[in-house]
Amino acid sequence: MDNLLSEGLTLMVFGMGFVFTFLTLLVGVTTLMSKLVVKYEPAPQPKAAPSRSVSPAVAQGGSDELVAVITAAVHKYRS
Amino acid sequence: MDKLLDLWLASGIYNISVGQFAMIVVGLLLLYLAIRKNFEPLLLVPIGFGGILANIPEAGLAFSAVENAVHFATPELLSGFAAILGIASVDPHDVLHAYHTSTASVHAAATLFANDNSFNNGMLYNFYTVAIASGAAPLIIFMGVGAMTDFGPLLANPKTLFLGAAAQFGIFATVLGAVTLTSLGLMDFSIQDAAAIGIIGGADGPTAIYVASLLSPQLLGAIAVAAYSYMALVPLIQPPIMRALTTEAERKIQMVQLRHISKLEKILFPLSLLILVAMLLPDAAPLLGMFCFGNLMRECGVVDRLSDTAQNALINIVTIFLGLSVGSKLSADKFLDIETLGILVLGIVAFGIGTAMGILMAKFMNKLAGGNSINPLIGSAGVSAVPMAARVSNKLGLEANSQNFLLMHAMGPNVAGVIGSAVAAGVMIKFVG
Question: What is the ipTM of this complex?
Fold first, then answer.
């Protein structure tokens, strides 16, 4: 019986200790990762994408124009 | 007349036992709670219905082929089983006991013998084998949860991970409570049972089911029912504890707006977590591996179709089978027991302690940070129960100060709690599995 209790106590001390150690390390890793990303990531790119896909299509006119409009709408919807 | 008698002897009314009747009532009660009171209906409807199906007399839906064969057995069949299992007795109880404790090869031989005599596994037994005994269903659900989780608030304020860690104290305190009850001679839990019961305090259904299926399958029904019922009761259990442990001034603290998180950070986070798990705690790899995989699918942006399936269609399909399989474990001899009562009481204690420790940790961090930057109410969200616990924090914050929106701040500790309880589960499996 006492054996079971001491087993429970050990589990509690080790378990809690491990959970804290693990999450502390995760805090460290996450913070480091965020710092690196903020430092090295180039300026935001996604804004360039929609204008690129629309401009060449507009010039052609007729049913192509319709296709372009639809393409742009689809792009807008997906992004 | 003989035909009429046969029909009567095969009827449910003739065969039903008191226990089965009581369990059908329990199943109906679960359905009532789910449908009328809206308690985690997505799980309690399948669980309650599965519980009713499992207790239909003579149908044997929740039993294996051998169990069904023994139930209907003729003396010749019983002596056949006794020969295969290597025992002298042909008493059905002894045969079943020998079957449950036999090695895998004897198990398979007994099953084939039952099949030869045209007995088959019950439907729910098959569901249980495929969904839970294999470990598949809880893990697939965890993948879906990963695909639904936005780590943005956590990444904006990584320190909230400590709140998720503190709230796991409820799990381990409950393990101690369960072994204490055993030492006092009130209940009879092994250390494995105690560990599986403790996980209820993590407030995370799939994790609780996964751990119970590995450590203590005989308690799975009660543990799953307790875990999901308490998750539904979060808005009732937590607020009194939160009010008792915080002052009015602390509840009014407003937190600064979270910074913007870039897409790259969100992609790198599940990968960092995965590597940390791989290096430190491989036993948590099934749970956290699937979780990280789901989250990566969500954030990487190139597999939207897979992410969509994981968080909608797939998780729904798996939930149906998981619920029915858990229901199959609601048999009278396992559930109508003083230990179920113990599990229900210990579960709610686990929940309360987890909530309290989260709040106390948040108060401590607030003191360290100067006393006016962290609202202690977000600490209670460290028990997982996503997103219910975060909503409770938000609600209490708004009560104290109508301009105080804590929801996003509480989502940080909330998802940290998911990681924390999965890590705690890994530790349990490592130490007592």
Answer: 0.89
